[in-house]
Design brief:
With 211 residues, the chain is mainly β. The chain is 12% helix and 33% strand. The strands form 3 sheets. It has a 6-stranded antiparallel sheet. A 5-stranded antiparallel sheet has the order 9-8-7-10-13, with no helix packed on it. The longest helix is centred in the middle third of the chain and has 14 residues. This is tRNA-binding domain protein. GO terms for molecular function: tRNA binding.
């Protein structure tokens, strides 16, 4: 898992790299321009902050999530080594927003407004995703934010439970994806049939969905 974000205006020249979900007890250690955040109980690395990162990666003209290339991850590992940390970052370039197909939908056992879906994504993999979308139904194509996705508002999708039922991902609305002119109301974004299940969701193409 490798989730990276950068916002120079808000945070300065700092790249935030997340490797695992937050835990209740965490601590940090700083060496040079790198701060490592870790789980106090296990010592597991949760993430890093790379200060003055433009000296390593050059100018990053983005504000939000960055999908780091294999070369960029290698450069960051060199920085970790130089600071005395273990160079343990692994590239993760696969899109976390994919076209899914809702194969099955059942009522949530402990909620009158949630449903439990079986949703097909890449390579025929099936995910159990709990959804609160009022327009949810079997047989539709949707946008799945898989575990490890960072939503446009900064929310990170992790495995979890909703009212006691496991959920691995999120079926997203056009509004949550910030598709231009998407309706300002709850509900899954139902894609046209020519979108191919398992393919990365094309945000550029989607700009015309509500035009």
């Amino acid at each position: 898992m490798l989730i990276s974000s950068y916002n120079k205006k808000a945070l300065g020249d700092v790249l935030i790299v997340i490797c695992a979900p937050d835990v209740e007890q965490q601590a940090s250690e700083t060496r040079g321009s790198v701060t490592r955040i870790f789980d106090v109980a296990t010592g597991e690395t949760l993430g890093y902050n790379f200060d003055q990162v433009s000296k390593t990666l050059g100018d990053l003209s983005v504000a939000g999530q960055i999908v780091l290339t294999t070369d960029q991850v290698g450069q960051l590992n060199d920085v970790l080594s130089a600071a005395g940390f273990t160079p343990d970052l692994m590239p993760d370039t696969r899109s976390k927003f994919v076209v899914g197909y809702v194969k099955k939908m059942t009522p949530h056992p402990d909620s009158d407004h949630l449903t439990v879906t079986t949703t097909v994504v890449e390579e025929g993999k099936e995910l159990q995703i709990v959804s609160g979308s009022p327009n949810m139904q079997a047989g539709i194509k949707v946008v799945v934010a898989e575990v490890g996705a960072m939503m446009p508002d900064g929310l990170i999708i992790w495995p979890g439970k909703l009212r006691g039922v496991e959920s691995n991902g999120m079926i997203s609305s056009g509004r949550e994806l910030r598709i231009p002119n998407a309706p300002n109301r709850p509900g899954a974004l139902i894609l046209p049939d020519d979108y191919e299940v398992g393919q990365p969701f094309d945000f550029e193409r989607a700009k015309t969905l509500f035009s």
